[in-house]
Amino acid sequence: MSRSDSPGVRAPAPAKKARKKKSSVTAHAGSLGTAANTKESFRAALAFPVDYLEADVRFTKKGDAYLAHDILTLHRQRGAMSLEDLLALVARRPRVRLNLDMKEVTGIAEMVKLVKRAGMSARVLMTGLSGDALLVAREDGGGLPYLYNHAPGILQRLTARGAADLARSIRASGARGLNTHHLFVTRRIARAMKDAGLALSVWTVDGEREMRRMLRLGADNITTNRVDVLLELLNGRQR
Question: Could you give the C-alpha distances from 7 to 4, 10, 11, in angstroms and in order?
Answer without folding.
Answer: 8, 8, 10
